[in-house]
Amino acid sequence: MEFNIGISKPLELQYRYFESHDSAMTFTILPSAAPPRVAREGSPSSETPFDSDGDIDTTQLPKRSKTDRKAITTPGEVVTEDPQWMRGHGTTASPGSTAILATVAGTLLRTNKLLSIQPLRARYTPEIGDLVVGRIVSVETKRWKVDLSAPLLAHLPLSAINLPGGILRKRTATDELAIRTFFSEGDLLVAEVQSVYQDGAASLHTRSLRYGKLRNGVFMRVSGTGGGGGVVRSRRQVWTVNTANGGGEVDVVLGVNGYIWICKHSRGELVASTEEAKKMNEITKMEEAVNESMYSNRNDEIGPQTRREIARLGGCVRALVENGVRVDEEMVMAAYGMSLEGDVTMEGVQEEEDEYMGGEKGTRVVAAALESVR
């Protein structure tokens, strides 16, 4: 009796077993043939390009070519029919099939096997640690409601702000009665997202010398982190610009939610009052330097040179947004530098000095700024 057993490597072995009647059984182990690969319909073939992680290249996901990363998907468009991909934000499953459809207009993103679509325009989604600029909408008991351009209004508790004089104590009924002396309806403030509730609403705090009420500047609203041109998360959201033409120092605050504040640098009094505290190496003295002026509603005197440079920086931000370029410290400073090099027309003729940065002039400034950062 003889048995054949297949394995992956050639090997031949004979084993004889002798029974009482002197008969023998022989075992022969033979190499097995590789099983044929059956390609499923819609699955990638052996010639399909793979990336470094072994994943399929997303350029073959849709029916139409996706070689251009900036290709826009439209609502109802079939992103892929391959069942190996999972659907994420901005997509939905087609009933009765394995196709994944787009639900918003935006760009296609891939995270391992997860497909999602980043919308061109979307409301801000709060995340812990984000620096945001907001507007007080209503004053309630022990808290304020703040508009952040998010689906829900944010909350700023009374216990999450600095008291005048930097006093660290429990909030009392007297503080609740004087709640409008800190912030009232319509006030602008810069704060940080401390936590996010289950329903998506954000809880803010201003317990830092960097945060608080905003004065002496201009407010701008652009698109946030949804997509396209707008404010993006970067290394620094707040910085001071040493402007040209005698404009002095100007602060730029880029809120991740798309709200921007450009103002005169008004920390001089605070810095002067904390110099002695720094020499004494007492950190608590710096907190005591916070005085009642931080909640004042009166603007300081701003010179015409400073106003002009504030307007120029604001024009640079608008030009970046109009041309679909990200708004961060690098691009704002590059556009500001290009705007100072001279207002020259396409024919090389010097234009009359003007702070308006829209239209053809803004396009030229943005193009030069993009070229300088490359």
Outline the fold blueprint.
Elements lengths: L1 E6 L18 E6 L40 E2 L4 E3 L5 E2 L3 E3 L6 E3 L3 E6 L2 E6 L11 E10 L2 E5 L6 E4 L15 H5 L10 E9 L5 E4 L6 E2 L3 E5 L16 E5 L6 E6 L4 E6 L3 H12 L3 H6 L15 H19 L6 H12 L18 H15 L1
Parallel strand pairs: 1-2, 5-9
Antiparallel strand pairs: 3-8, 4-7, 6-7, 8-9, 10-11, 10-13, 11-12, 13-14, 13-15, 16-19, 17-18, 18-19
Order of helices and strands: EEEEEEEEEEEEHEEEEEEEHHHHH
Task: Please give the share of residues in helix.
Answer: 10-25%
Strand content: 15-25%
Computed Rg: 32 Å
Q: Please count the beta strands (DSSP E, at least 2 residues each).
A: 19
Write down the oligomeric state: single chain
Weakly predicted, low-confidence segments: 6-21, 37-60, 62-69, 268-284, 344-352
* Number of continuous helical runs: 6
Q: Largest sheet, if any?
A: 6 strands, antiparallel
What report would you give on this structure?
- Helix 4 (304-322) packs across helix 5, helix 4 (304-322) crosses helix 6 (359-373) and helix 5 packs across helix 6 (359-373).
- Strands 10, 11, 12, 13, 14 and 15 form a six-stranded antiparallel sheet that branches.
- This protein starts with a strand and ends with a helix.
- A hairpin with a 2-residue loop joins strand 10 (131-140) and strand 11.
- It has 374 residues and is α+β, with helices and mostly antiparallel strands.
- It has six helices and 19 strands.
- The model is unreliable at 6-21, 37-60, 62-69, 268-284 and 344-352 (pLDDT under 50).
